[in-house]
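note to self — DONT lose this again. spent like an hour looking for the file last time. sequence + predicted structure for the chain T wanted, 323 res
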Amino acid sequence: MVIRRDSAVGEQGPDSGSETAKAAKRVPVKKTTSGKKTAAGRPAPAEGAPVGGAARARTAGDSPRGESRTALVRRARRINRELAEVYPYAHPELDFDSPFQLLVATVLSAQTTDLRVNQTTPALFARYPTPEDLAAADPEEVEDILRPCGFFRAKTRSVIGLSKALAEEFGGEVPGRLEDLVKLPGVGRKTAFVVLGNAFGRPGITVDTHFQRLVRRWRWTDETDPDKIEAAVGALFPKSDWTDLSHHVIWHGRRICHARKPACGACPIAPLCPAYGEGETDPEKAKKLLKYEKGGFPGQRLRPPQAYLDAGGKPAPPLGATG
């Protein structure tokens, strides 16, 4: 999930159609002359050379292994700038009106989609609007509400437990310090940084599965431990960029750079990606793999920011909606 600054980024972006066309144009394909190089500094393919398969000019194996630290920092920051142009409306994809709602929603988002959480939390917060209310709730009633989120028994224990801790130790308020948040039941560093970045405006990097996958594909780090990934990537960027960076990377992972079949042919940062070619390189086929607003489909929030709607994004349907 994301969230790097659950404070929504609210700048108007281009419509999804023009974005897809832009992305396709930026993919390095056939047109080149001898001696020219791609934006990533590697030799471009010869005129008419096929892109993809064994004949493609760039593969996951020809990443910049000899890249200097300075070159890595420049490439990473350029990728972030490019993604900021593609997703100027990037925002937390969990609906929330308060730090408490964001905290609970983030805990519920484990091993399920933000969409499913957004479809479930309206009933939960309508019945239990405060930490004190949820702390005193009948667990079976909470389980019934949370059932669509999966692992509902464990999640019920976590949200009731963290609500009790908030009521008893923090006066019913969500603390704004990392060291306090991670002591709450079900709250780790990822969840804490989602809350800090998006509810309190305090920079943090959210290392979810999308973030881990993409930063390793881009060879920003070879680490596999989330805490080490957080430290390695954080060192490439100024702290003030961390929350937005998280949003940009997570959004790109959900929309274009998918786990099983990335849409390489529709990727706006293809010239900068060492893993270009792991997915579909044909622009027309790649466009069919795009998700959410990039593919013309609804997003994950029932109540998205206006900037997202202005950019062509559609709100998600409520739980049980058909059509």
